[in-house]
Amino acid sequence: MPDMTDRQAFSGLTVLDFSQGVAGPHATTLLALHGADVIKIEPLEGDWGRGLGKIEGDHCAHSVAFNRGKRSLALDLKAPDAIAAVNKIAAKAAVVVESFRPGVITRLGFGYEAIKKINPSVIYCSVSGFGQTGPYSKRPTVDGLIQAFSGMMVMNRLPDGTPWRQGMIAVDVTTGLYTFQALSTAILRQFRFGEGCHIDSSLMRAAAAWQGAKLMEWVHTEGNPQPLYMPAGSYKTSNGYIMLSAMRPHHFRKMFELIGRPDVAADPDLQTHENRIKNAPKIVKALNETMPARTTEEWIALLQPNEVFCERVSNYEDYLAHPHVKETGAVDWIKQDGFASMPIANIAGLPPAREDPARHHAPHVGEHSRAILGELGYSAAEIDAMVAKKAIVVPSLPARAAE
Amino acid sequence: MPDMTDRQAFSGLTVLDFSQGVAGPHATTLLALHGADVIKIEPLEGDWGRGLGKIEGDHCAHSVAFNRGKRSLALDLKAPDAIAAVNKIAAKAAVVVESFRPGVITRLGFGYEAIKKINPSVIYCSVSGFGQTGPYSKRPTVDGLIQAFSGMMVMNRLPDGTPWRQGMIAVDVTTGLYTFQALSTAILRQFRFGEGCHIDSSLMRAAAAWQGAKLMEWVHTEGNPQPLYMPAGSYKTSNGYIMLSAMRPHHFRKMFELIGRPDVAADPDLQTHENRIKNAPKIVKALNETMPARTTEEWIALLQPNEVFCERVSNYEDYLAHPHVKETGAVDWIKQDGFASMPIANIAGLPPAREDPARHHAPHVGEHSRAILGELGYSAAEIDAMVAKKAIVVPSLPARAAE
């Protein structure tokens, strides 16, 4: 139930969320963490995003991350009883989000025009791969394909030019952020001006917007963007990798003097930004020769106090254990049903997870079906009848069903 | 000047923006594109973010991308006249954003506590590398170092395990999105409840939040996350690369039948998700053998109609020229002073750039100094005196100065 007393941005707002997977759910979990009552409509078997990677019950790590704070109503969108219940929610929702392939939601009867008739100021957001219009609009796609399509894999390419896909669903996650950007501003317009709208969000647009400066740079440099500075990369040490970055001109000289390579610091071929870019292989060669001689920690102890920009290359375990991360409360550890304690990366502008751990619960399939239908005025007998007809799913555990 | 008639989310709001570089400016350019009057406070020599890569006058591609829609007031923050002018703006601003190293803005006299005294409901946002507190808070950093620190380079690592930095300032850009998330919700709280706040946004937190599901997955799999499905990667064709993705189980079989490798489709070692992950090298080997036999376009013509997920690996030139991108208006081309026409990746929820090209102008250093000071009540003679004292900069072109 929405809590109107907590003074969060979206307190008191209902969100009808048909979205599945990652992009849409990421946007709506941010709405939920900022106080909205997000009702997650799932098919009887659950959101397909619950099966990404290692599974624990009806969740995986991704479905926990992108469904925190929501309530789940699992139903068959073709069953008349379920359709009637969804329409009751649609009539009062501030926001409706869906991520079916373009055209599908209209056939199901919950398209923008249909909802607008019963809810004139609704904010309706469609999230898709290629957008609602154009020749590719109905083309099936996934994160990796948009990494390929958008130029992201070429941007992230290896030294030999091989295009490289990121080891995470970067476009999906980023689409969640751009979709949230569209939703939060639309909600403010709804508050200020009483207006709704139809938002056409897509993986394609989000990937391009995220790379917007790179697109401009590509045009401006006629396809030959230069590194912003040199060196800026990771180098092997005796026990790992160190990232070195000589952003300001004086950093270059200082770095090479400190690591015992005054010959490079003074090399006449490397005294200007342009020359360092042009003769980058000389710099890379010198660092590859020199950096393996000491540990990462020894180099950092030498370079950092002299304001040469450097950092240990960490994995997630290092990050989670880092004293600065711990001391600043950047990560909280929250219990999720069926999982060991899970790390929550706290987000700027949101209360830290430790202050409201219950809000970070990601629902089981149909966990709140009974509660939500009860709020809509359905009696327990009516709900039981819907379960018997397989129009809805409620959790099998009596303790939950009694909620 | 703010336009109160356009009914954008932030119409009528003034933003006092001290931020430089990319992360803060990215957030405030989104505020400007959604209607806010963002006054960019720059040092006399301009934001250092104007010098990232190839330079054109007082801009580079990055500074254009992340300063669209703002007005520039260039001044010396230590000159008494400039300080007085900034305080006038601070008193009426809905939002103040700064990205100095923690502690600096307080010494300059514009810290949260100082602004709050003259503007009790102000939203004050600090953007930094490691946040405002903790042992690393004053450590200098840049995008690449946070890619290293946050685990991002390990997530993005090469097949041999080498950590790999993305070819763009991914953390800076993403921090802009998380900062915008914090600002837009804080503005809604300011509207609804009359409350201000101090937001502590950082590159470190944004990088971790963006990888939040990966952090959970790392813990859940004890540091050994598996690919979400197999295959999902790019393969050489006779004229480029193709990205292949067998998300659903039946895609795997269909893909290998269609490319003429029924032996792989039927391989008893590859019939379950678990076995395909375990025996991934067999799949990769088969694709490396087979895919170079035809062009990318031939493969796509064969696979796509059968709903096997595949996509050409494009660069930015391909993206910008793509018929679907053109037909959907995903990119508009806008003239920027000093540049050829520049591509604007249109963002979901915002009017397309072609409908309001003037809003996509990124200001020159001090371009609006005269206009802004005039609105604050300064006479032309007073402004001239400030210029003579080097307290402010106005553009040297008479046409602009007359604005």
Describe the protein's architecture and organization.
The structure is a homodimer of 403-residue chains. Chain A has 403 residues and is α/β, with parallel strands linked by helices. The first copy, chain A, folds into two domains: 14-213 and 332-401, Rossmann fold; 232-319, formyl-coa transferase, domain 3. Chain A contains 20 helices and 14 strands. The first copy, chain A, has helices at residues 23-33, 61-65, 80-92, 104-108, 112-118, 143-149, 152-155, 170-193, 203-210, 212-220, 249-258, 262-265, 273-278, 280-290, 296-303, 316-321, 323-327, 369-375, 380-388, 398-401; strands spanning 14-17, 37-42, 55-56, 59-60, 71-75, 95-98, 123-128, 197-202, 232-236, 241-245, 309-312, 331-334, 342-345, 392-393. Chains A, B: Keywords: Transferase.
Low-pLDDT segments of chain A: 398-403
Structural class of chain A: alpha/beta
Number of domain units of chain A: 2
Terminus-to-terminus distance of chain A: 12 Å
Mean pLDDT reading of chain A: 94
Oligomeric state: homodimer
Helix content of chain A: 40-55%
Q: Approximately what portion of the residues of chain A adopt beta-strand conformation?
A: 5-15%
Strand order of the largest sheet of chain A: 8-7-6-1-2-5-14
For this structure, the CATH topology of the largest domain in chain A is Rossmann fold
Largest interface: A-B, 136 and 136 residues
